Amino acid sequence: MTFHARTFCVRSREAIANGYALAAVTGADWLRRAASQVFVTGSFWAGAVAMAAAVATLKIVRRDDVPTRLGQLGQTLRDGLETRSHQFGLSIRQSGPVQMPTLLFEGDPDYRKGSAFCSAMLARGVYFHPKHNMFLCAAHTEADIAVALEAAEHGFATVAAL
């Protein structure tokens, strides 16, 4: 798995086939029936490598109970960000599922605080996005979350000094 331990933003295609070009469309039965009436083609439909990667990835997801683990890691991250923001007298909003965190600063319509926060974190080797959700992945560990929270302290201190 290609992964930088402190990057909290990965492309969604990496989740299903570990970086290989593969997409999946799901939906209700009535939508699948309607879609079956439309001719669709693609460039990589005979690409066995991506399919094999997806099968292997899904086995790991099941074996390691990745959704539960990401929920726990995401909650640890969310709780840690909340605690640290209060330590610096800052009000933040966190939204989305904990596995796809979004962190925004109250009273920051131009994302000035968010950009300063993310720049300060990046200086500590952790990439957060100032106005978009991010994605945890199976490669993230408790140690990665700890590093991110340590960098967040630097980020919150930077924002508090604005």
Query: How many whole angstroms does the radius of gyration measure?
Result: 19 Å
- Within the CATH hierarchy, at the fold level, what is the topology of the largest domain? Aspartate Aminotransferase, domain 1
How much strand? under 5%
The average pLDDT score comes to: 84
Distance between the termini: 39 Å
- Tell me about the largest β-sheet: 2 strands, antiparallel
What would you call the structural class? Answer: mainly alpha
- Care to count the β-strands? 2
- What's the CATH architecture name of the largest domain? Alpha-Beta Complex
* Corresponding CATH superfamily of the largest domain: Aspartate Aminotransferase, domain 1
H/E topology pattern: HHHHEEHH
Regions with pLDDT < 50 over 5+ consecutive residues? 1-14
Strand order of the largest sheet: 1-2
In DSSP terms, counting alpha (H) and pi (I) runs of 4 or more, how many helices? 6
Shape: elongated
Just give the CATH class of the largest domain.
Answer: Alpha Beta
Instruction: Kindly give the count of domains.
Output: 2
State the share of residues found in helices, binned by percent: 40-55%
